[in-house]
From TrEMBL:
<protein>
    <recommendedName>
        <fullName>CHAD domain-containing protein</fullName>
    </recommendedName>
</protein>
<dbReference type="InterPro" id="IPR038186">
    <property type="entry name" value="CHAD_dom_sf"/>
</dbReference>
<dbReference type="Pfam" id="PF05235">
    <property type="entry name" value="CHAD"/>
</dbReference>
<feature type="domain" description="CHAD">
    <location>
        <begin position="8"/>
        <end position="295"/>
    </location>
</feature>
<dbReference type="InterPro" id="IPR007899">
    <property type="entry name" value="CHAD_dom"/>
</dbReference>
Length: 305
């Protein structure tokens, strides 16, 4: 099934079908990690993010359900993240290699890679049980949806989508302002989550406004990638700082942290420019257009029935 809502089928019917498909696919990835644990966790977490974004979009239809399931899916994702922590840090070090300015920075990266490779080898003992537990939790979440009725009049669907869309855009605007004021890591993390969710909203409703949404999806994906690298480097910096004593010298550590900070700063500046372009419109306009297009699609479908 395509990750795409069908207004003509009704918001809840269409959303439930997508949610169940995403959750069952996540469980399948975890139960059959054919390309290894890292790949299975990555694919499952991607499905969970898509499910959580869709729950946000329909939140006003069943706030209590959305709240409970968001906690469940968040906890599943967090447990899975522990299996990829070491690999994600290693990927960040590889990413930094092309930005090292001198031999000292390259040597610092090499030492950190050796250290994290060793750490990764020591942390895989409980992976099978973690994967199984997460798969079971995903299937439980899908079963709950199958047995849950969410009554919603069709006339309210457009307003629910409009409300969620506006709330997301407001969150992105607030995050941009916070980033401008202090360049705090948490502000960029919030902006990243808002951007990822925006990309998913655009994907879910891409047929309502294909030309505009194709461009916006591309821009949102590019911004999310930039912010993803920034977030990874924030995690890497914290991990390196926590293991400072394992480096052969303070100078080596200083070279590595300097490289991380320099690259982070460049990514943040790039992200702010892109975010202002992506989220630069009035936050009230786009949600109204989305609601109107939703109603139009429903009306067109009714005429052809």
């Amino acid at each position: 099934m395509t990750y795409q809502l069908r207004p003509e089928d009704g918001l809840i019917i269409s959303a439930k079908a997508i949610l169940i498909e995403q959750l069952m696919a996540a469980a399948s990835h975890l139960e059959n990690p054919v390309n290894g644990v890292d790949d299975a966790v990555h694919r499952a977490r991607r499905r969970l993010k898509r499910a959580r974004a869709l729950y946000r979009l329909i939140a006003a239809a069943s706030p209590d359900l959305r709240r409970r399931e968001n906690i469940r899916l968040r906890d599943i994702a967090r447990h899975l993240a522990t299996l990829r922590d070491a690999s994600a840090l290693i990927e960040s070090l590889h990413y930094l290699q092309s930005f090292a300015d001198n031999a000292d920075e390259q040597q610092a990266l090499h030492q950190a890679l050796s250290m994290l490779d060793t750490q990764k080898g020591e942390s895989t003992d409980s992976a099978d049980q973690t994967l199984q537990n997460a798969a079971t939790a995903c299937r439980d979440a899908a079963d709950l949806l199958n047995s849950t009725d969410i009554p919603l009049r069709r006339a309210k669907a457009a307003r629910i989508v409009q409300k969620a869309w506006k709330k997301l855009l407001a969150k992105a605007h607030h995050a941009i302002l916070a980033c401008e004021e202090g360049f705090e890591p948490e502000s960029f993390h919030t902006l990243r989550k808002a951007t990822q969710t925006y990309w998913m909203y655009l994907s879910l409703l891409r047929d309502l406004w294909p030309s505009a949404f194709a461009l916006k999806r591309q821009s949102a994906k590019q911004l999310a990638d930039v912010l993803g690298h920034e977030n990874d480097l924030a995690m890497l910096s914290a991990a390196i700082d926590a293991q400072a004593a394992r480096f052969d010298s303070a100078e080596t550590l200083s070279h590595l942290l300097g490289l991380i900070i320099r690259r982070q700063q460049a990514l943040r500046e790039e992200a702010l420019v892109a975010a202002k372009a992506l989220f630069g419109d009035d936050i009230g306009l786009e949600p109204v257009i989305i609601a109107q297009l939703w109603r139009l699609r429903v009306d067109e479908a009714a005429v052809t029935e």
